[in-house]
Design a protein that fits this description.
By secondary structure, the chain is mainly α. It has a domain of 40 residues. 89% of the residues lie in helices and 0% in strands. The chain starts with a helix and ends with a helix.
């Protein structure tokens, strides 16, 4: 039990050391990346909606 606690404490300590080494993005970078992701999601959603609509129309034509 004691060794598990020591392992956990060591893990937390090493994790904190590694987090200090990280170069965190600034607010402008995060905003730009967020805009890129939102635009990409909207574009892919529109594309998939168009493909789905086209396939549904094709299925209706084939079924009739």
């Amino acid at each position: 039990m004691v060794s598990k606690i020591r392992q956990f404490v060591g893990f937390v300590s090493e994790s904190r050391e590694e987090l200090r080494k990280v170069t965190w993005p600034d607010r402008d970078e995060v905003t730009r990346f967020t805009v890129v992701v939102v635009v990409a999601v909207v574009l892919v959603s529109i594309f998939l909606w168009l493909v789905d609509s086209g396939l549904m129309a094709l299925v209706k034509v084939v079924m009739n």
